From TrEMBL:
Catalyzed reaction equations: uridine(516) in 16S rRNA = pseudouridine(516) in 16S rRNA
Keyword Isomerase assigned: yes
Task performed by this protein: Responsible for synthesis of pseudouridine from uracil-516 in 16S ribosomal RNA.
Protein name per the record: Pseudouridine synthase
């Protein structure tokens, strides 16, 4: 159990400065487990704690682990330049908690994007030492051929890479649709690998990370959900 007072708890959840959070509490704007509390010094039990403010219930969460079904035309960059940032899809207070995308998807790539405010989690998930497979469905300009699959499995040389990069697995899903699984996360990797193999990626969607399947989350594009411990366990590395 945390020993945080209510004003600090609100601040930790991203609702604003301590001073602002105190004023919300003193103005009777905050309910704790269903009861309005005006004493900001109260130390509530954080286990199962539900705050109510701004007409919504907010379950206390020490850290946020989020899966977003990313739509096209959103940037993962912290300082987006041409399109809105993915953070704008989440509640505003999550930005105050320093929630960040775990890795990047291109602005036109859709699908599974993890987001968190847990630095250790972000670091571990992004580490190249982890061999967590990322599964993509790539729509191709030219038809998928056995030769293309053989090239991607055998490894293709990208300009700025010291050695060829290979897909872990790769299979044809349809005449112009390829499932490609990568264990690295290089810049524009799928698109560049397809180009290096003589084809062109016209649309890209990430459908799974490790054992976590986007389909199992039942999110429409633009929707997000919290990940529970069981879903996070599916992201565990296969080898360290
Ligand atoms: N590979 C790409 O080319 N783009 C992405 O967004 C992800 C992987």
């Amino acid at each position: 159990m945390s020993k945080l007072s209510l004003d600090r708890i609100l601040q930790s959840q991203g609702f604003g400065s301590r001073k602002y959070c105190r004023s919300l509490i003193e103005d009777g704007e905050v309910a704790v487990n269903g009861e309005i509390v005006t004493d900001y010094k109260l130390i509530p039990d954080t286990a199962g704690l539900v705050l109510h403010l701004f007409d919504e219930d907010w379950e206390y969460r020490e850290h946020l682990y989020i899966a977003l079904n990313k739509p096209a035309n959103f940037e993962c960059s912290r300082k987006p330049s041409h399109h809105p940032g993915v953070l704008t899809i989440l509640p505003e207070q999550f930005s105050w908690r320093d929630v960040q995308p775990v890795g990047r998807l291109d602005h036109d790539t859709t699908g599974l994007l993890l987001m968190s405010d847990d630095g250790a989690f972000i670091h571990a998930q992004s580490s190249p030492k982890r061999h967590v497979p990322k599964v993509y469905a790539a729509t191709t300009h030219d038809a998928v051929t056995d030769e293309l699959i053989a090239q991607l499995l055998g490894g293709v040389q990208l300009h700025d890479e010291p050695a060829p990069l290979a897909a872990s697995t790769c299979r044809k899903l349809d005449t112009h649709l390829l499932e490609i699984v990568l264990e690295q996360g290089k810049y524009h990797q799928v698109k560049r690998m397809l180009a290096a193999a003589g084809n062109h990626c016209s649309a890209l969607r990430r459908v799974a990370i490790g054992g976590l399947q986007l389909a199992s989350l039942e999110l429409e594009e633009g929707e997000w959900c919290y990940l529970d411990a069981g879903q996070l366990a599916l992201l565990a590395p296969q080898t360290e």
